[in-house]
């Protein structure tokens, strides 16, 4: 943790959040026993149901007390607890390098803090953690358990630099194709892509039965466009610079933002993803607490 | 438009400074690393047209403001609405109408139309042209181009001073046209300064067409018509139609026919003090004017019996047009009405002599002598009012022909054997005679020798029978015709004041009934005699003009004027025993002005500009117009400020 490449992890925050579990909103298909519900029956202590004995069933699982009472053979089934595959998908486009005025933390740094902390928490509760991004050198670390794997994920996360045009949609479609078993996919992005195209990528993930959570990272200035003087706006993704007088276009800018957010709300409603709009001025540990608590409430749901 | 500091115009490219600064700012603007370009592009797209237009307008206003301030420091000169545009011409020709009517004054300042126009023109030319153009003056009295050194001379020279002449504007323009064509003046501005009197402009004359086509064939000639067509309010003009000295046993007196005319059509009675000055004695007579005209017939002014010859004037109270408030007159004993008949045909000259010796006016003396053609040189040319020439026409270039051409009035009668010589454009043809006498089919009865009498009665031309007639060949003005358009009496077209007639028959000899009936011949001869006698005698009334006095040494009675200006100014001129009263031409009193439309038609097809000014208007023709540019700059800056004003700040913020 003392490594400077993992500076996005704050021990104080980690210790505070350690008490909160990271739950999936749906059953997971893990390889080992864990804390998460599984779609198959297992041998945990939590009773699930009775079912009539059929030839071939393991006679050790017969409920002898029910046989004694009813003279019929019933099999007693228990919930299976399994582990969770957490896939952290970070947008590495140039726009992620945006740093709000008066701050030293860029959007990408913020995303790394969120992703790194969640990855650490997941690993601590025995879940598998993987990392996906489409940086200059594409990163694709499948979800695995173990401290050494977590170290690999965190090291890779620390070495990624946001640069170039947006590759979010490609990354989402790739992830949907490559993550074979259902997993909790958490996306960290500014989502500066057309909502219609984003919708198809999200639906692709949902189609593969992944639990999708989305951290939409924005700065208040990006919403308000609150500049007072004309300026040359340099595209962080390498596009053509624009000369603009904010006084002239502020109204239209806000109108465009409003329309975009409205379309995004429609997308969230129709795809049922776990969406969190985060301002870069918010404290990231508060954001994570809110995220984790919202998932605690879902526990026990089937 | 011209500039007092034209060198500063080279700084005009500095007007592009705002554009340059704008371009520099484009690259020096604060740079913001921005991620949400998606929204920025959408906003730009939505705002593109308006934003670009606004930006262009802002730049245009800034350029305009800088250009305006550059113009301000170059001190532009323009005539405001006059639009003295087009830069400095090579030549400026000033055509000055300094006729009597141009002396109409602004009563408050005493400035006449002529002096006001000259002052403005001088200032405008000094400010706009200076000495960079050749300046030429042509004024109506002499019609001679006069080069001026500087525009200020327009107000200083005697030849731009007041006169009591009339103007002939077409002749002025013709002089300008000749000057331009002869001297190849290049780009020429022709300034015409006039009060647009119809009598001066002769808008219906045949010369305008030739002038228009003449000027149209020249390139680079522009006309600036500085006009003062402003009638004088409540103007009165005075004229003396006739002066007669009458002497009886008891007294001597002058009988004056005085006419006072009111310019406007007002008819309210007006008590008018008329001041008569004869010699050194003045009397005032109060007359009541009830109509637009007051006529005093034979108004008697007593004079000393010893005063056989003298001069005087009649004056009206001062008004806006001083030139028509005074009329000068002279008087003397009337001269003998002397006539000469050159003929050796007794049958012809006898009735003529009888008619010419008969007294039409009992107060006058008549004398008629007959000379054979061989003694024609003995004629006393200076004292003879009428010459009746019944002899072959003299050969052109002969001494006798020259003297005849200078004679006051000549009536030519056809000789029995006409020669082929021509005189004043006319010559005799052949004799014709019909068995049936010809009668007069038409004659001019409004003016000339055969005009109706004062009472309106026509002369008995219809009773005249012509048995023999001689053809009159050449161009002239017919006064009477026989039968099928055969001229009987024709007036030759002469340029001077002398008059020449050709009569196509003889009074006797079986040629016509002129001598037998007598009335027509008597009237005709005495009218010719009367016309010829106008130049006789020691006292004469003449219209002011450059040729009004003729040769000789003349000096002026009363205030002294330059000798060159003497015949141009109203007053009494004296040469030996001769007295001449010079007055303005009475047509100058006609209050009719040429309208702007009519003026435009006269200059149709020519590059011209009409500048209507008034004598009360004290603003100059050309002035510095930096204020206009300053105003433009203020407007541009205001427009730029309005466009740069930030829109009202929106309070509501987009919530995430």
Structure description:
With 302 residues, chain A is α/β, with parallel strands linked by helices. Chain A folds into two domains: 4-26 and 83-296, von Willebrand factor, type A domain (Rossmann fold, 3-Layer(aba) Sandwich); 33-82, no CATH class. Chain A contains nine helices and ten strands. In chain A, strand 6, helix 6 and strand 7 form a beta-alpha-beta unit. Chain A is elongated, with a radius of gyration of 23 Å. Residues 80-85 of chain B have low confidence and may be disordered. Chain B is 25% helix and 31% strand. Chain B is built from 13 helices and 33 strands. Chain B folds into four domains: 2-79 and 627-644, no CATH class; 86-231 and 592-624, Rossmann fold; 236-333 and 539-589, Immunoglobulin-like (Sandwich), CATH 2.60.40; 337-533, Rossmann fold, CATH 3.40.50. In chain B, helix 1 (17-28) packs antiparallel against helix 2 and helix 2 runs antiparallel to helix 13 (626-644). Chain B is α/β, with parallel strands linked by helices and 656 residues long. In chain B, strands 18, 19, 20, 21, 22, 23, 24, 25, 26 and 27 form a ten-stranded mixed beta sheet that branches. A six-stranded mixed beta sheet of chain B has the order 8-7-4-9-10-32, with helices on both faces. A four-stranded antiparallel beta sheet of chain B has the order 14-13-16-17, with no helix packed on it. The interface between A and B is large, with 48 and 28 residues.
Q: What's the arrangement of secondary structure elements?
A:
The complex is a heterodimer of chains A (302) and B (656).
Chain A: H1 11-17, E1 33-52, H2 64-70, E2 74-82, E3 85-90, H3 107-124, E4 128-133, E5 139-144, H4 147-159, H5 168-178, E6 184-189, H6 195-207, E7 211-218, H7 220-224, E8 231-235, E9 242-244, H8 246-271, E10 274-279, H9 284-296
Helix pairs in contact in A: 3-4, 3-9, 5-6, 6-8
Chain B: E1 2-3, H1 17-28, E2 31-34, H2 37-73, E3 76-78, E4 91-96, E5 105-106, E6 111-112, H3 113-128, E7 134-139, E8 146-148, H4 153-156, H5 169-183, E9 188-194, H6 198-201, H7 207-216, E10 221-227, E11 236-247, E12 252-262, E13 270-278, E14 281-289, E15 293-303, E16 310-315, E17 326-331, E18 337-342, H8 346-357, E19 366-371, E20 384-389, H9 399-406, E21 409-412, E22 422-423, E23 426-443, E24 465-474, E25 476-482, E26 486-492, E27 499-503, H10 514-517, H11 519-533, E28 539-543, E29 555-557, E30 571-575, E31 578-583, H12 596-602, E32 607-612, E33 623-624, H13 626-644
């Amino acid at each position: 943790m003392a490594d400077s490449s993992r500076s996005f992890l704050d021990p104080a925050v980690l210790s505070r959040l350690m008490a909160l579990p990271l739950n999936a909103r749906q059953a997971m298909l893990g390889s080992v026993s864990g804390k998460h519900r599984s779609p198959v029956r297992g041998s945990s202590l939590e009773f699930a149901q009775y079912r009539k004995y059929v030839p071939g069933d393991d006679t050790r699982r017969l409920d002898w007390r029910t046989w004694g009472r009813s003279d019929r053979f019933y099999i007693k089934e228990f919930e299976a607890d399994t582990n969770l595959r957490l896939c952290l998908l970070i947008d590495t486009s140039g726009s992620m390098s945006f740093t709000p005025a008066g701050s030293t933390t860029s959007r990408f740094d913020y995303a790394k803090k969120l992703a790194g902390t969640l990855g650490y928490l997941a690993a601590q509760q025995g879940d598998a953690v993987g990392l996906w991004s489409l940086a200059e050198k594409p990163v694709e670390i499948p979800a695995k358990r173990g401290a050494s794997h977590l170290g690999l994920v965190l090291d890779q996360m620390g070495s990624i630099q946001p640069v170039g045009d947006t590759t979010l949609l490609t990354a989402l479609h790739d992830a949907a194709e490559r993550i074979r078993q259902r997993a909790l996919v958490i996306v960290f992005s500014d989502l500066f892509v057309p909502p219609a195209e984003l919708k198809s990528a999200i639906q692709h993930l949902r189609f593969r039965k992944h639990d999708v959570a989305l951290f939409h990272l924005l700065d208040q200035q990006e919403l308000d466009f609150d500049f007072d003087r004309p300026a040359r706006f340099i595209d962080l993704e390498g596009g053509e610079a624009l000369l603009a007088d904010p006084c002239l276009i502020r109204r239209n800018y806000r109108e465009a933002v409003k329309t975009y957010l409205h379309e995004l709300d429609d997308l969230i409603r129709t795809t049922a993803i776990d969406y969190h709009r985060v301002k870069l001025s918010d404290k990231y540990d508060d954001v994570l607490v809110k995220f984790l608590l919202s998932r605690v409430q879902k526990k026990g749901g089937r | 438009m011209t500039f007092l500091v034209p060198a500063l115009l080279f700084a005009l490219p500095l007007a592009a400074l705002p554009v340059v600064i704008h371009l520099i700012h484009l690259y020096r603007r604060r740079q913001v690393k921005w991620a949400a370009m998606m929204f920025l592009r959408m906003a730009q797209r939505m705002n593109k047209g308006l934003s670009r237009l606004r930006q262009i307008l802002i730049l245009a206003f800034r350029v305009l403001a800088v250009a305006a301030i550059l113009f301000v420091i170059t001190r532009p000169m323009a005539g405001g609405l006059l639009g003295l545009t087009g830069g400095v011409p090579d030549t400026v020709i000033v055509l000055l109408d300094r006729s009597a009517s141009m002396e109409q004054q602004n009563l408050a300042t005493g400035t006449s139309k002529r002096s006001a126009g000259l002052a403005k023109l001088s200032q405008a030319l000094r400010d706009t042209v200076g000495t960079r153009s050749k300046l030429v003056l042509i004024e109506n009295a002499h019609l001679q181009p006069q080069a001026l050194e500087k525009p200020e001379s327009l107000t200083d020279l005697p030849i731009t001073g007041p006169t009591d002449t009339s103007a002939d504007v077409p002749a002025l323009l013709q002089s300008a046209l000749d000057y331009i064509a002869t001297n190849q003046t290049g780009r020429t501005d022709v300034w015409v300064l006039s009060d647009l009197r119809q009598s001066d402009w002769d808008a219906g004359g045949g010369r305008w067409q030739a002038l228009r086509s003449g000027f149209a064939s020249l390139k680079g000639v522009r006309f600036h018509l500085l006009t003062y067509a402003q009638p004088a309010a409540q103007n009165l003009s005075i004229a003396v139609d006739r002066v007669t000295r009458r002497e009886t046993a008891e007294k001597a007196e002058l009988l004056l026919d005085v006419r006072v005319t009111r310019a406007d059509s007002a008819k309210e009675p007006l008590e008018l003090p008329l001041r008569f000055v004869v010699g050194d004695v003045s009397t005032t007579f109060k007359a009541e004017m009830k109509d637009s005209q007051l006529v005093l017939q034979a108004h008697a002014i007593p004079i000393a019996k010893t005063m056989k010859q003298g001069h005087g004037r009649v004056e009206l109270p001062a008004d806006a047009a001083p030139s028509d408030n005074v009329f000068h007159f002279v008087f003397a004993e009337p001269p003998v009405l002397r006539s000469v008949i050159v003929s050796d045909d007794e049958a012809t000259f006898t009735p003529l002599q009888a008619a010419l010796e008969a007294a039409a006016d009992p107060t006058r003396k008549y004398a008629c002598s007959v000379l054979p053609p061989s003694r024609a040189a003995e004629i006393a040319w200076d004292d003879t009012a009428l010459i009746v020439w019944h002899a072959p026409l003299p050969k052109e270039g002969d001494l006798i022909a020259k003297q005849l051409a200078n004679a006051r009035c000549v009536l030519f009668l056809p000789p029995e054997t006409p020669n082929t010589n021509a005189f004043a454009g006319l010559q005799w043809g052949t004799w014709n005679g019909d068995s049936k006498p010809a009668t007069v089919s038409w004659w001019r009865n409004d003016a000339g020798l055969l005009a109706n009498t004062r009472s309106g009665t026509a002369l008995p031309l219809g009773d005249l029978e012509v048995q023999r007639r001689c053809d009159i060949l050449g161009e002239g003005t017919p006064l009477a015709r026989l039968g099928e358009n055969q001229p009987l009496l024709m007036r030759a077209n002469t340029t001077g004041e002398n008059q020449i007639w050709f009569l196509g028959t003889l009074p006797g000899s079986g040629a016509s009934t002129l001598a037998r009936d007598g009335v027509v011949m008597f009237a005709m001869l005495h009218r010719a005699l009367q016309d010829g006698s106008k130049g006789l005698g020691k006292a004469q009334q003449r219209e002011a003009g450059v040729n009004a006095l003729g040769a000789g040494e003349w000096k002026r009675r009363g205030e002294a004027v330059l000798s060159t200006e003497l015949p141009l100014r109203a007053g009494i001129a004296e040469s030996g025993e001769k007295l001449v009263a010079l007055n303005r031409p009475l047509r100058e009193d006609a209050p009719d002005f040429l309208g702007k439309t009519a003026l435009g038609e006269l200059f149709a097809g020519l590059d011209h500009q009409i500048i209507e000014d008034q004598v009360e208007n004290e603003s100059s023709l050309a002035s510095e117009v930096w204020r206009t540019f300053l105003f433009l700059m203020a407007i541009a800056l205001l427009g730029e400020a309005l466009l740069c004003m930030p829109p009202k700040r929106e309070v509501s913020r987009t919530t995430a």
